Amino acid sequence: MRHSLTTTILLLALCQAPAASADHVEVVLKNGDRIYGELNKDESDSITVARRLWAKGGCSTQLITYPRPRITSITVVASLADLYKARAVAAADTFEDQWVLVHWCLDRGLDEEALAHARRVYAFDPKDNFARKLLEDDLGCVLDGGVWIRRTDYANRHGLVLYGGKLMTPAEIELRKAHSASVAALAVAEDKVKDLDAQLALSLQRLKTATLTHRHLLRRDAEAKTAAELKRRETMTKAQIEDEDDERRFDAEHHIARPDEQAPKDSLDAKKSFDDAELAHQKLTADREAARIAHEKAIAQESAARDAIEKAPTRGK
Q: What is the pLDDT of residues 256-271, one digit of tens each?
């Protein structure tokens, strides 16, 4: 079994190896890190190494420059294909050796070889959580029909698209976009309600202040008018008072408006401030009610969008 697996993976690695390459070097940094790759530039103050780096999305080759003051040693080593060949031959067909070999391959950007050995690790114990995590998290694979394959291959096979870190059908994506939009709309509605609540509190305070001022000046003006009227009538004869009272009764019976004296300016200003405050408060109250209705509608829409996601069939990974 061991020789069969090793032979198969070695043939894959050799087929992918370039016909000719630059020197392969191992660079030891002063912080203890060991860097492996192809020497791209060797200059007096630095070296540049082409490194194969692995991520869930796959391997990529990056040119990385290391200043010589950071370097402890530079050693020319065998090619990556030769190093892998030696490692693969030496590794036993056991969970432990294959596990170590997977990580050795990942550290050097040998993604296909790492996947092959990871599949072997999983085959030893399909219930092992570490083996599953290795394939899912480190190699970005999913189990499809009993076989671990790349997420990209799974997506292509099932018509899925990567969205929010997960593979989904276009229909699932549209549902999540609709939910995201409803969440954003709900947040706007909540902010609107909070803002209007704050405005209403200030408006109510202004209205109370305007009301108290207006009432105080009305009372003052009434008292002043009463005092002036009493003083005026003191200078009148009894007949004049009786004639005036008869005239007032006649006007009242026939709904004839009597001319009022002009109110003091501060009273007129207070009346206008009260009217303005009352009108503004009424408008804010109406706006707050509209915002409350919009907020309840946004809550219902967000809930419906969430329910649609929960009830929809899921094919993503």
A: 766 666 778 898 899 8
24-29 and 58-67 strand pairing: unpaired
User: Would you list the DSSP string of 272-295?
Assistant: HHHHHHHHHHHHHHHHHHHHHHHH
d(CA 292, CA 158): 44
Kindly report, residue by residue over 16-73, the tens digit of the pLDDT: 333 334 788 989 999 999 888 889 999 999 999 998 876 655 667 889 999 999 999 9
- CA dist., res. 288 & res. 195, Å (int): 9
Helices (H), 235-264: 238-253
Distances 284 to 114, 122, 198, 273 between C-alpha atoms, Å: 65, 65, 10, 16
Structural fold of domain 2-149: SH3 type barrels. (2.30.30)
Tell me how far apart the alpha carbons of residues 40 and 204 are, in angstroms, rounded to a whole number.
74
Contacts of 205-214 with C-beta under 8 Å, sequence gap 24+, read 206/277, 206/280, 206/281, 207/274, 207/277, 207/278, 207/281, 209/277, 210/270, 210/273, 210/274, 210/276, 210/277, 210/278, 211/274, 211/277, 213/270, 213/273, 213/274, 214/270, 214/271, 214/273, 214/274
pTM (whole model) above 0.70:
no
CB 139 within 8 A of CB 266: no
